[in-house]
Amino acid sequence: MPETPAENAPEPTEEDIFEQKAVRLAKRERLIAERESAAGGAYPVSVPVTHTIPQLRAQYGELEAGAETGDQASVAGRIVFSRNTGKLCFASLQSGDGSRIQAMISLANVGEESLQRWKDLVDLGDHVAVSGEIISSRRGELSIMVSAWEIAAKALLPLPNLHSELSEESRVRSRFLDLIVRDTARTTVKARATVNASLRATFAAHDFTEVETPMLQVQPGGASARPFITHSNAFDTDLYMRIAPELYLKRAVVGGIDRVFEINRNFRNEGADSTHSPEFAMLEAYQAYSDYNGIADLTQELIQNAAIAVAGSTTVTWADGTEFDLGGQWDRISMYPSLSEAAGIEITPDTTVEELIALATANGVEIPKQETHGKLVEELWEHFVKQHLTRPTFVMDFPVDTSPLVREHRSIAGVVEKWDLYVRGFELATGYSELVDPVIQRERFVEQAKLADRGDDEAMRIDEEFLRALEHGMPPTGGMGMGIDRLLMAITGLGIRETILFPLVK
């Protein structure tokens, strides 16, 4: 009986899946029983492959309808369409990149026994290997006229309907199915690899060195975030999952690696939403004898080169069809003046906490748990200014008390030389003129410790080893950090759970 193509099949119920699995398990047993007399069985160690499906499509994709080449090939792929008739069976084989080729299994070419085995044993979702002549069907479809075939891997569960959109929850929970049935899932994986390759190429062009820093740390540092805690049996001590590589990368700069970067995994025990994930990929880079202006120039170049690598242009097309221009010179605005203009009241580093709380209350802005000047200013800025940013924008010059690792501004009192880069309405990257004075850095750590004592779970701790490194002398340095997942969001328009291949789900 002909099998329904995966493109048109209704979504199977749990009862259908149970029954199909039982039937497929029986076919598996038959294949295993035949193993002594027929090569392979249900899961052979190898199958003959001379070409990939993409190779054949590239070489023979322009054949005229009905053409015969006389050329032989052996290919393998997953069956995503199957139609069985009396003397001729058709199947579409799909490769990992989504490209397909048709297999034609005819009585005249394979014989009655082999044709019947195909009908009896092969299901949608199976991996099969076929050998035969490369032809074009009467309808102009690139095909293999099969002379021999064998199962490469027996699928025990059916494929979902290829024309029915998987829910987001199904996509992230069963990414392997998402990759089989959805082109966007596959292209996103490749886009991520392309972005990482582009980042590394840009850094190489600027003579940066890539390093690796510890993911398990005696104490967390380098960011204001709540860490995950684990325990080492070997050392009989609690350890912290890395929240940022910053303090180790700066040690490398102290040691003379003047241009250093790392693409790494970080872990923060905080909320998850459309732009945050507890586990995420991050890029950090530090350049000696640069500052936050120079590192902003580098960041813009990194992102624009990555966009060109993926999209062929700095104008990218998001998943919803919207075009977004990442080209040109990006705007740079200062936090305090932009907030003052948007709020209609002058706000400076000298504005009191009480005045800021009154402004926040009057405008329905949530007051942070720790009512510091800097946290209030940043909350107010997000309320009044962030939503109006349309182009990629560097927001410069942040409050001192929210930036404990940043150098004070060279000419503006009460702020530090820090920027945040906003793209598509979310923060994509942050950059500093790094604080390299060990005395001031200790003072900043002490202030952070006081916040921790008052219940701030995200406050930094005093890191004596890092301070000892600074005391050996760190040159003037510009540094930046950028989320790789968010960079993919900016280029593709997808949510963070779509840009991460296997996101954490409950």
From TrEMBL:
The keyword Methyltransferase does not apply. Binds 3 Mg(2+) ions per subunit. Its main location: cytoplasm. Its cofactor is Mg(2+). Mg(2+) 2 binds at residue 427. One of its GO terms (biological process) is lysyl-tRNA aminoacylation. It is an enzyme of class 6 (ligase). Keywords: Aminoacyl-tRNA synthetase, ATP-binding, Cytoplasm, Ligase, Magnesium, Metal-binding, Nucleotide-binding, Protein biosynthesis. One of its GO terms (cellular component) is cytosol. Its EC number is 6.1.1.6. Mg(2+) 1 binds at residues 420, 427. It is found in: Cytoplasm. InterPro entries: Aa-tRNA-synt_II, aa-tRNA-synth_II, aa-tRNA-synth_II/BPL/LPL, Lys-tRNA-ligase_II, Lys-tRNA-ligase_II_N, Lys-tRNA-synth_II_C, NA-bd_OB-fold, NA-bd_OB_tRNA. GO terms for molecular function: ATP binding; lysine-tRNA ligase activity; magnesium ion binding; tRNA binding. Belongs to the class-II aminoacyl-tRNA synthetase family. Homodimer. This is Lysine--tRNA ligase. It comes from Microbacterium stercoris.
